[in-house]
Structures are given as C-alpha cells and as structure tokens.
Amino acid sequence: MGRIAGWVVLDWRVKLALAGFKPAGDVAGTKNAVIEIIKLCYEAWAWKTLNDQIVLLSRRRGQVKQAVTAMVQQAMHYIDDTPDTETRIELIKTLNSVSAGKEKKKPKEGDNVVEEAPSDIPSLLELKRIYYELMIRYYSHSNDYLEICRSYKSIYEIPSVKADPSQWIPVLRKICWYLVLSPHDPMQSSLLYSTLEDKNLSEIPKFSFLLKQVITMEAIQRTALWKTYSDEFENEKAMLGAWQAL
C-alpha cells in the first residue's frame, strides 16, 4: 500500500510538471489531474490510498474549488464498488468530511498553509444522507438503537429534509421509536429531552405522548402500547425486529 501511495503522489507531480501549469491557474488541467489520480487509486483497488489522496488533494494550497468538486463527484461513483461495509463507510466519511470543509487543521511552524476545503459542493447533502442511511444499516446488525436514533437525527437535520413534512415526519417517528428502544443513559436522556422540545413533535401527538411516558419513567405495557400505536406500527413494518425487543 505504501508503494502505491508513493507512486500516486509521484505521478501527480509528474503530471503537473508535464502539463506546465500551476494548480490555481488551470482549472481544466487541474480537474483532469485530480480525477486521474483518484482513478489510479481506484483501478489499483487501493481504498486507503484513495481516501488519503482525496484528503491530500483537497488540502493543496490554492486548489481550485471546481477541481475538488470534480474529485468528490468522481469518487462518489466508486461507493457502490467498495469491497465491504467498513470500506464504504470510510470512503463516504472522507468525502463527507472534505465536502464539509472539516479537514482544516492548524499548521505547525514551517508547514505550508492549509486551505479549507470548499463547503458548497452540490453533492454534499446527498452524500450526508447516503452516509447516515448506511450507518443505520451498519448499527442495525448489532441492534445499537441509540446510534441508529442518532443517525436518523442527523438525517432529520438536513435542511432539505426539514423543509419537507413528507420527509421529516417519518424520520421523526423513527427517532421516537428508537429512543424508546434505546437503553437509558445520559446520551439517550439528552436526545429524549431535545426531541420533546422539538415543535414538530406536535404534528405527531401520539409520539409526543409516548416520549413523555418514557421521560416520567412510567412502565410501558406491551398490550397497551400495541393498542395505541398499532396503526403507526403497520406503516413501519421494517421496525419489526426492534419492536420485538420491547
């Protein structure tokens, strides 16, 4: 893997030298170069190197936004080809982080100045949703209900989701379901209180009542719960495995 990484970096330098341009001065040339680099990583099936190069290229001083955008969009095509769930998650995390401009770090003395990655990449919100939906599947294997809940919460906070009741209502319902299923601890309690304070919860009053039962530590009886929430449950049969844990 180290040889591949070294070869890719060397190839990047050779391409820049042959092209005879500075990264900030030739948009088309820079886009072609960064896309070629990540293609080399992909074709070599070097997933860790691919992640490393995406971060490295996004950090280059003076790197043009169009080139980083093109790089992220190209790498998104590789998500479905990843060999396993862990690799897929790491690639999505890398793309999400670079797109959101989270790769900025404080330079040490003598280091080159690191510019923040662009935060206006059009695919960012789509990428976030893909990432958290994948995390939901990942945590479902271990029945980690709190992490599933937190993943739904992250989807819920996406502006395009919050602006559309047809999207946020089913997501908020799932947040409530998984809060009920989650073991009581400080994180669950914090999320429970913040959800109860959400004004949107008034649109699904039965779930508001359910969370209030949990907050007051009232015993939840299976029969009574089924009678109250059977209609909602029928609309979410994917929750069957979680429901049986009650």
From TrEMBL:
PSMD12/CSN4-like N-terminal domain span: 24-102, 126-164
Segment forming the signal sequence: 1-19
Keywords from the named record: Proteasome, Signal
Keyword field contains Signal: yes
Gene Ontology CC: cytoplasm; proteasome regulatory particle, lid subcomplex
Name of the protein in its database record: 26S proteasome non-ATPase regulatory subunit 12 A
